[in-house]
């Protein structure tokens, strides 16, 4: 497979915005048919590297300080934009992270794909359309002829990303750059997309640069790995080498922070794990290992019984509802003091809806929600208001959930004022400082504004704000998903420390099964608004019983290139939960197959 | 698909709602305008004031009876509505010409002026706005923003007068007033066009800046498309919704501005007609002009709604 000269060779590349260098002295090569993974956390310069190869950095206002980008005997760093236009989309193509926003909403899928063919190849429209049909079939999209006439908003995320791949492959490029192509997708869809990409690469013999922060995906896809940190390459090597014997301290810290599915085999309870951090350029293990034995099983703190939430989707001429989305169908579970219950599932499984209903952000059509034995329905409005204090919510996006015009101290103090917890102004300030220190930030930052903090710090601030009202239960809705793995590992430990110290309960909503395995006591697996399987950590991950849970677990990429992957072909989309009125989903009963382990019957 | 018979019904409902809306708008506006104008003076007095002759109270009474203005307001208004339904808008108080004839003569002139002005502003503001967005913070952007600020600050009659001074009086290139040849359109539409462009340019710039951040613009560039295709095909179409909304609203505002422009350039349009009708307290003409303008605005709103669906598949009628 290897040729004398590599397909692409980046030599000593430095990219800068003004004087700010985002990529420094980077060199690596890609051979035809080879997959090179560029890994790193946010700000590592990995996306800038890919945009530089396409010379799309010009539009962002960046310039090259030094270096060459040799592609088939030409130096792309010196090429004119006109020359680049004949290379882009033709010889080098790119797939972007967000399938939801990378297709233009006002043009049909077919038009957008054929556009590239018509541009680079001298063919008629009819020939181009024929090619588009073949491409859509190649990425295994069913009913290609009909799909071409559809608009992006009529397609699911997974379908859009496949259309995007079809678009990138339209002119049979020699090099494909994929920038986090599956990050925004559910694991089952991710598994399908990765399989398609692997198959097509083999078929077309393309070189591929795969940019990702997910070490599991790296292990599955890459031949060769380039690790980037703060704009520089810190290490590179064959994938097995990197995983088995990482040399650079940063690579070692990164790999140790990656949550691994199955790493807790045989453990009854979740475990707080020590962290590996970089200190003076050397990895150092800090913190203790502690078994999270915090659950008190006398009386449930929260008890949900037969929760049912439906949204009216479409109405007819007379305002009568014709279509409904069954978001949550008769879901029941308990959360005990000091316990973490994880709700896992794919998009549309209803996991966030359950959280929002408990937080009274929306109403359930039926069902009972009790806190310490008292039902919401029996509470006075003053008691319901107090529930808003005792139950706190932490959102996925720490950027969007803090008011950019208020200091973080103000944001943290707000729930204290709202619930009238502390009257004295000085005492409030003292409490805010305490809270900031509790989540690992210096108290002096109280007077700063959200934009001055990184994503991980903001999530800590959001946690401090949640703690401000002395909650009993925290609903963490994908609270770790937007964070880099090293930050994620720190926040997981923070969550577990707070639980051990304050006896908090968590309803942990997540799609990341490896994180769930590490930090939850019990797990409920949701699919289309119903619980498929519920039980202790060990029951779910080691005595997996429901086929859906098995499917979900098999789709998780394993961060170990030596892992023997059984070729599990996962097919199909996540079904649409919108149904006609009258065509209600069947409510599945549950069997208790061992104490505390419930599995949905049938289906 | 099974949806198609339903679709016809939805379209019918939609149009029906639109017609009801138009009727409501016309009634509210004409009621308000007719009542307000009657508070400002008596057409009978106005008629005699022009002639300079003396008049007795009996003469005035006779004139009022002839015009029908002696009847209570609600009866006069009812007469007007009846006229609307039967397409007989009566005769002008000043001169006695049939109102429908006056409208029919004036409306096309105004429409021509309005549409050409609109076109001038669109043709100027879209490329300028895109240029400003692409060269954000650079010299071109600064210049365009200064132009926009200056343009917004100009009163329209002042700009019109300056253009007349320059092109008609000093250079003698263009006719100072009237409507006829191609040249006669240049100054009125340029005046309106520049003033509209001044605000539109900012809107196009803002909408474009936001769209240029989108990933699909990056994807379009990654395909190898030329910059003009990226901007004018992929990005512009996505800016269309806010632009169409604003252009639609602007059309209504512009009709008001045209009264002044028509007066300055002696343009024989609805603006001039309305202006003279107010002066003469010529109720039938004024009411008719207002009705036509209201219907025009309703029609433009309808066009805007249809245009939404054409440019953005996500809001096509389901």
From TrEMBL, chain A:
SMART domains, sorted: AAA (SM00382)
KW Repeat (keyword) present: yes
Catalytic activity: glutathione(out) + ATP + H2O = glutathione(in) + ADP + phosphate + H(+)
Listed Pfam families: ABC_tran, oligo_HPY
Domain ABC transporter: 8-255, 313-553
Subcellular location: Cell inner membrane
Keywords, comma-separated and alphabetical: ATP-binding, Cell inner membrane, Cell membrane, Hydrolase, Membrane, Nucleotide-binding, Repeat, Translocase, Transport
Cross-referenced Gene3D superfamilies: P-loop containing nucleotide triphosphate hydrolases (3.40.50.300)
Top-level enzyme category: translocase
PROSITE patterns: ABC_TRANSPORTER_1, ABC_TRANSPORTER_2
PANTHER family: GLUTATHIONE IMPORT ATP-BINDING PROTEIN GSIA, TRANSPORT ATP-BINDING PROTEIN
Subunit structure: The complex is composed of two ATP-binding proteins (GsiA), two transmembrane proteins (GsiC and GsiD) and a solute-binding protein (GsiB).
Protein name: Glutathione import ATP-binding protein GsiA
Organism: Aquamicrobium zhengzhouense
């Amino acid at each position: 497979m290897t040729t004398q000269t590599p397909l692409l060779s980046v030599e000593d590349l430095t990219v800068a915005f003004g004087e700010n260098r985002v990529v420094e002295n980077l060199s690596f090569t890609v051979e035809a048919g080879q997959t090179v993974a560029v890994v790193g956390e946010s700000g590592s310069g990995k996306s800038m590297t890919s945009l530089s190869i396409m010379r799309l950095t010009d539009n962002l206002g960046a310039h090259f300080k030094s270096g060459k980008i040799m592609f088939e005997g030409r130096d792309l760093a010196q090429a004119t934009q006109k020359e680049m236009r004949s290379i882009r989309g033709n010889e080098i193509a790119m797939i972007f992270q967000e399938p939801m926003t990378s297709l233009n909403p006002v043009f049909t899928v077919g038009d957008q794909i054929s556009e590239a063919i018509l541009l680079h190849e001298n063919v008629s429209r009819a020939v181009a359309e024929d090619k588009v049909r073949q491409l859509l079939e190649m990425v295994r999209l069913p009913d290609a002829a009909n799909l071409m006439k559809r608009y992006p908003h009529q397609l699911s995320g997974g379908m859009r990303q496949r259309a995007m791949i079809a678009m990138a492959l339209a002119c049979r490029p020699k090099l494909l750059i994929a920038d986090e192509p599956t990050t925004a997708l559910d694991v089952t869809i991710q598994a399908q997309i990765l399989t398609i990409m692997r198959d097509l690469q083999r078929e077309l013999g393309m070189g591929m640069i795969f940019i990702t922060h997910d070490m599991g995906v790296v292990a599955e896809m890459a031949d060769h790995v380039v690790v980037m940190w703060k704009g520089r390459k810190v290490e590179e090597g064959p994938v097995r080498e990197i995983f088995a014997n990482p040399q650079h301290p940063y690579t070692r810290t990164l790999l140790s922070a990656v949550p691994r599915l199955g790493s807790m085999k045989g453990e009854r309870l979740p475990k707080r794990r020590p962290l590996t951090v970089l200190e003076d350029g050397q990895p150092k293990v800090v913190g203790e290992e502690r078994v999270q034995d915090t659950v008190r099983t006398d009386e449930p703190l929260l008890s949900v019984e037969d929760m049912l939430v439906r949204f009216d989707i479409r109405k007819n001429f007379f305002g009568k509802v014709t279509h409904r989305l069954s978001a949550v169908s008769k879901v029941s579970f308990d959360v005990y003091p000091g316990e973490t219950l994880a709700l896992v599932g794919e998009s549309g499984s209803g996991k966030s809806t359950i959280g929002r209903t408990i937080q009274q952000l929306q109403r359930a059509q039926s069902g009972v929600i009790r806190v310490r034995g008292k039902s919401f329905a029996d509470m006075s409005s003053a008691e319901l208001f107090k529930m808003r204090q005792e139950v706190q919510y932490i959102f996925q996006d720490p950027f969007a959930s803090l008011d950019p015009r208020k200091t973080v101290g103000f944001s943290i103090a707000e729930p204290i004022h709202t619930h009238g917890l502390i009257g004295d102004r000085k005492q409030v300030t003292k409490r805010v400082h305490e809270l900031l220190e509790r989540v690992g930030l210096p108290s002096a930052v109280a007077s700063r504004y959200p934009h001055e903090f990184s994503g991980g710090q903001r999530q800590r601030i959001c946690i401090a704000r949640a703690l401000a009202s002395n909650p009993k239960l925290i609903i963490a809705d994908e609270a770790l998903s937007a964070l880099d793995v090293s930050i994620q590992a720190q926040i997981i430990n923070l969550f577990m420390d707070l639980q051990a110290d304050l006896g908090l309960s968590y309803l942990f909503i997540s799609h990341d099964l490896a994180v769930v395995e590490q930090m939850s006591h019990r797990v409920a697996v949701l699919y289309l608004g119903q619980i498929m399987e519920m039980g202790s950590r060990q029951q779910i991950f080691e005595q997996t019983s429901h086929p859906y849970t098995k499917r979900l677990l098999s789709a998780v990429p394993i961060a170990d290139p030596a892992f023997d992957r059984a070729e599990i072909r996962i097919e199909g989309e996540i079904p649409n939960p919108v149904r006609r009125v009258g065509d209600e989903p069947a409510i599945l009963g549950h069997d208790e197959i061992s104490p505390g382990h419930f599995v949905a019957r049938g289906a | 698909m099974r949806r198609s018979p339903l679709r016809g019904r939805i379209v019918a409902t939609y149009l029906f709602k639109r017609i009801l809306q138009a009727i409501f708008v016309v009634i509210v506006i004409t009621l308000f305008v007719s009542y307000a104008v009657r508070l400002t003076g008596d057409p009978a007095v106005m008629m005699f004031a022009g002639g300079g002759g003396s008049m007795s109270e009996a003469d005035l009474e006779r004139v009022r009876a002839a015009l029908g203005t002696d009847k209570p307001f609600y009866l006069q208004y009812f007469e007007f509505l009846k006229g609307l339904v039967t397409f007989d808008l009566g005769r002008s108080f000043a001169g006695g010409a049939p109102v429908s004839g006056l409208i029919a003569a004036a409306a096309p002139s105004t429409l021509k002026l309005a549409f050409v002005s609109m076109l001038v502003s669109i043709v100027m503001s879209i490329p300028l706005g895109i240029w400003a967005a692409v060269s954000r913070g650079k010299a071109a952007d600064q210049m365009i923003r200064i132009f926009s600020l200056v343009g917004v600050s100009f009163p329209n009659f002042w700009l019109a007068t300056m253009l007349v001074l320059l092109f008609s009086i000093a250079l003698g290139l263009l006719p100072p007033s009237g409507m006829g040849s191609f040249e006669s359109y240049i100054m009125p539409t340029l005046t309106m066009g520049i003033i509209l462009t001044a605000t539109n340019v900012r809107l196009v710039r803002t909408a474009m800046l936001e769209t240029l951040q989108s990933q699909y613009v990056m994807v379009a560039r990654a395909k190898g498309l030329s910059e003009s295709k990226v901007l004018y095909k992929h990005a512009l179409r996505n800016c269309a919704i806010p632009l169409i909304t604003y252009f639609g609203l602007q059309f209504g505002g512009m009709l008001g501005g045209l009264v002044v422009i028509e007066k300055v350039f002696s343009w024989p349009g609805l603006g001039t007609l309305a202006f003279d009708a107010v002066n003469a307290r010529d109720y039938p003409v004024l009411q008719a002009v207002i009705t036509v303008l209201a219907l025009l605005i309703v029609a433009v709103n309808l066009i805007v709604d249809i245009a939404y669906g054409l440019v953005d598949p996500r809001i096509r009628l389901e």
